[in-house]
């Protein structure tokens, strides 16, 4: 298909692009990572800082990705080469590598959610959720479900941008919104959920002043908005010049925050109503894979129906995200090596599947990979994107982001670019410094013990 001369794939509609980008953003990060981070960061304090980071850092960096992608009309490797300069193609390959890394362990977690979704329908939730999770998280079952999820991701990406990614997003995202809203409404009916809402919605000063919470909020914003590795850049490369980039990016960011916020409105009351808050902080997977299934089990039939809906949402969200990661690598292969989409997608998914064997067999390796990619590489990528967009190609960004924007949005572009230039880099640089230090400590302790 994508041999030289053939027209490049493209999104069919503006809504299709927005839903696909929102689909990339909304995923396990909004539920698994967000609830964990929020409970670690003192609930409401984290949520408040997180929305701040989404607005101040997230939207400007997303628009830098959009601008570079649409102007370059190719995957990150080619887009950075064309828009910024030949030497920057290397950064594109770093992005693709980071995509493979994240995809590999993301698929393992998504595999667990598939297993939970199927089991909740077939046999219900386990009575001892902790032991059950321990028995499925690593080993043969984890490998099998990881491969199944990767195959699903591959299937969508093989369908192309319009026929696969856009179509899947147009169907799956509305389903996801409806279920999440339904779940949040249902959670208000729980006895004893009040303590959960209190923790989630009442910020305390102590956590607000903690620099660790600031850093976690920034890293979470990048991960949740799919920033820092060219996913949004790749999607924007399939847009034409009429798309309103600043408006689209803002809608995507608000949607992503909205879903994460609603996921919290489900997770916190459910967990507190059953007194399971202790299980949340125990591990990065505690909230989602141990406390919640335990709660659903304790609620009997209602729990089973609600729990099934919850895990179906997770699978759906994970899939619309994983396709964006696979698309970055696939598109890079297609654009750089002039191979068919079929060949590119198979090779990319194959590498990610093989890489994923490690986290599927060892949950410690999974945690390590998430630290390296999620906490370090994405932050580094975000910083470089801010410097590129705000300093190196600022004039081109001004032109590109204005192109297709409505008059009101066109007026906001210089302001957004000023934030990208002066506000974003110093904050992200500080975050990067501390993230690098912490990641290094984790890596060292992983290999020494
Ligand atoms: N944003 C997704 C989530 O919240 C995960 C994701 C998809 C992602 N594409 C990405 C994260 C690219 C970082 C980079 O689950």
Question: What features would you highlight for this structure?
Answer:
449 residues, mainly alpha, Amino acid/polyamine transporter I, 21 helices, 82% helix, binds tryptophan
List the helices and strands and how they pair.
Layout: H1 14-25, H2 28-40, H3 44-72, H4 76-83, H5 89-122, H6 129-137, H7 140-158, H8 161-187, H9 194-201, H10 205-208, H11 211-224, H12 231-236, H13 245-273, H14 277-281, H15 286-298, H16 300-337, H17 341-355, H18 357-361, H19 363-392, H20 394-402, H21 407-448
The protein binds tryptophan.
Oligomer type: single chain
Per DSSP E runs of 2 or more residues, the count of β-strands stands at: 0
Tell me the domain tally: 1
User: How would a crystallographer describe the biggest sheet?
Assistant: none
Ligands: tryptophan
Uncertain runs with pLDDT below 50, 5 residues or more? none
Helix-strand pattern: HHHHHHHHHHHHHHHHHHHHH
Tell the overall outline. globular
| Highest CATH level, the class | Mainly Alpha
The number of helical elements comes to 21
Secondary-structure content class: mainly alpha
Report the helical percentage.
over 70%
Strand content: under 5%
Cα separation of the termini: 49 Å
The CATH architecture can be named as Up-down Bundle
Rg result: 21 Å
Mean pLDDT: 93
What is the CATH T-level topology? Amino acid/polyamine transporter I
Kindly summarize this structure in a few lines.
The protein has 449 residues and is mainly alpha-helical. It contains 21 helices and no strands. The mean pLDDT is 93.
Written description of the protein model:
The chain is mostly helical and 449 residues long. It has one domain (14-448): Up-down Bundle (Amino acid/polyamine transporter I), CATH 1.20.1740. Helices cover 82% and strands 0% of the residues. The protein has helices at 14-25, 28-40, 44-72, 76-83, 89-122, 129-137, 140-158, 161-187, 194-201, 205-208, 211-224, 231-236, 245-273, 277-281, 286-298, 300-337, 341-355, 357-361, 363-392, 394-402, 407-448. It is globular and about 55 Å long. The model has no long low-confidence stretch (mean pLDDT 93). It binds tryptophan (TRP). Tryptophan binds next to helix 1, helix 2, helix 11 and helix 16. Tryptophan binds at residues 24-25, 27-30, 102, 223-224, 226, 229, 231, 321, 324-325, 378.
């Amino acid at each position: 298909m994508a041999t030289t001369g053939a027209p490049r794939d493209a999104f069919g509609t503006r809504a299709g692009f927005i839903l696909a980008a929102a689909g990339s953003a909304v995923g396990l990060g909004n539920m698994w990572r967000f609830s964990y981070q929020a409970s670690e960061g003192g609930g409401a304090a984290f949520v408040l800082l997180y929305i701040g980071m989404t607005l101040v850092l997230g939207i400007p960096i997303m628009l830098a990705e959009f601008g570079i992608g649409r102007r370059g009309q190719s995957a990150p490797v080619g887009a950075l080469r064309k828009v910024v300069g030949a030497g920057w193609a290397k950064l594109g390959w770093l992005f693709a590598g980071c995509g493979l890394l994240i995809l590999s362990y993301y698929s393992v977690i998504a595999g667990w959610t598939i297993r939970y979704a199927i089991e909740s329908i077939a046999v219900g939730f386990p009575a001892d959720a902790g032991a059950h999770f321990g028995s499925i998280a690593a080993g043969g079952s984890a490998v099998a479900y990881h491969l199944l999820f990767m195959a699903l991701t591959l299937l969508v990406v093989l369908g192309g941008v319009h026929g696969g990614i856009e179509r899947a997003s147009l169907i799956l995202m509305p389903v996801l919104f409806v279920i999440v809203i339904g779940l949040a409404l249902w959670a208000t009916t729980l006895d004893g959920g009040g303590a959960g809402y209190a923790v989630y919605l009442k910020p305390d000063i102590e956590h607000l002043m903690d620099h660790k919470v600031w850093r976690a909020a920034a890293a979470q914003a990048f991960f949740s908005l799919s920033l820092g590795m060219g996913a949004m850049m790749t999607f924007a490369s399939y847009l034409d010049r009429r798309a309103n980039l600043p408006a689209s990016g803002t809608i995507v960011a608000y949607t992503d925050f909205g879903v994460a916020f609603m996921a919290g409105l489900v997770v916190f009351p459910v967990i507190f109503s059953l007194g399971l808050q202790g299980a949340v902080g125990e591990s990065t997977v505690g909230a989602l894979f141990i406390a919640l299934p335990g709660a659903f089990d304790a609620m009997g039939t209602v729990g089973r129906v609600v729990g099934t809906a919850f895990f179906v949402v997770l699978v759906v969200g994970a899939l619309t995200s994983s396709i964006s990661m696979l698309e970055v690598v696939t598109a890079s292969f297609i654009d750089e090596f002039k191979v068919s989409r079929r060949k590119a997608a198979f090779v990319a998914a194959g590498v990610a599947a093989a890489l994923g064997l490690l986290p599927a067999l060892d949950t410690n390796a999974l945690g390590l990979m998430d630290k390296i990619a999620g906490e370090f590489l994405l932050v580094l990528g975000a910083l470089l994107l801010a410097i590129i967009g705000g300093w190196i190609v600022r004039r081109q960004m001004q032109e590109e982001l204005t192109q297709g924007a409505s008059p009101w949005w066109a007026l906001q572009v210089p302001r957004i670019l000023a934030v990208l230039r002066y506000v974003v880099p110093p904050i992200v640089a500080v975050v990067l410094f501390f993230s690098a230090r912490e990641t290094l400590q984790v890596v060292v302790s992983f290999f020494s013990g």
